[in-house]
Amino acid sequence: MRRRLALLLGVLLFAGLAGLAAADQRFTVVKIDLRKERLELFLRDDAGVPFKRFDRLDAWLKERGRQLGFAMNAGMYHEDFSPVGLLVRGGREESPLNLADGAGNFFLKPNGVFLVSDAGPRVVESSEYPALAKGVRLATQSGPLLLRRGVVHPAFIPHSDSRKIRNGVGVIGHTAIFVISDVPVNFHEFALYFRDVLHCRDALYLDGTVSALHSPSLHRSDFVRELGPILGVASP
C-alpha cells in the first residue's frame, strides 16, 4: 500500500508543479523517488521465458506475494526479446554495453544508459558508463539521448513530421521521472518537455510505437506489442 500511495503522490505532485503546462494532456508522468521505492528490471521468468507483457509479469509477482505498482518498457530489444544494449539486473551484467554503429534510433549517437546505484539514478552517455559501472545495481541502454547536460540531441528536427507515441526517462536528484506521450510527438518536442517543463538536464529515449505504461494508481495497463526488458516497482 505504501508503495502504491507513493507512486500516486508522485503523479499528483507533478500535476501541482507543472501547472498549466500539464493541461495539454499530451504526456503522462510518473516520478519515482528511489530513496523510498526500489526500481527493478524484469525480463524472464524462472524458466527463462520472457514476460513480454505487464499482466504476465504481474501474475508472476503475485505468485510470490508481490504486486506490480508501476512498469514501463525499458529499452530496445531483438526479435527474441533480448536487449540490444547493456542490461544490468541485481548488480549483474546480463547483456554488454553496445557502442557499435548501426541504423535505427538505438544507434543515433549519442545514445545513453539509465542506471541506478547507491548514489541514485543517472542518465549518462554510453561511452561514459564503464567508468561508472562499479556499484551499479540496475542499468539499461537505449538511444538516442534526449538531453545531455541540458542540450537537446543535435539530430532532432524541431518541426519533424515523424510523430509517434514515445516514452523515456529523466532524472533529478534521487528521482527517476518516467514519461509517456499520450499523443504522437516528435523527438524535439519530447526532449523539450523533459527540459523546459520537467527541468531535467539528462534524459534518455526508451522507445516509440511499443511504448507502454502500467500504473494501477492511474487505472492504466497498456498493451501495444510484446515487450523486452521492463522497468518496474513491485511491493513489498
UniProtKB/TrEMBL annotation:
Keyword annotations of the record: Signal
Query: Residues of the signal sequence?
Result: 1-23
- Which domain of life does the protein's organism represent? Bacteria
InterPro entries (alphabetical): NAGPA
Q: Where is the Phosphodiester glycosidase domain?
A: 70-212
What's this protein's name? Answer: Phosphodiester glycosidase domain-containing protein
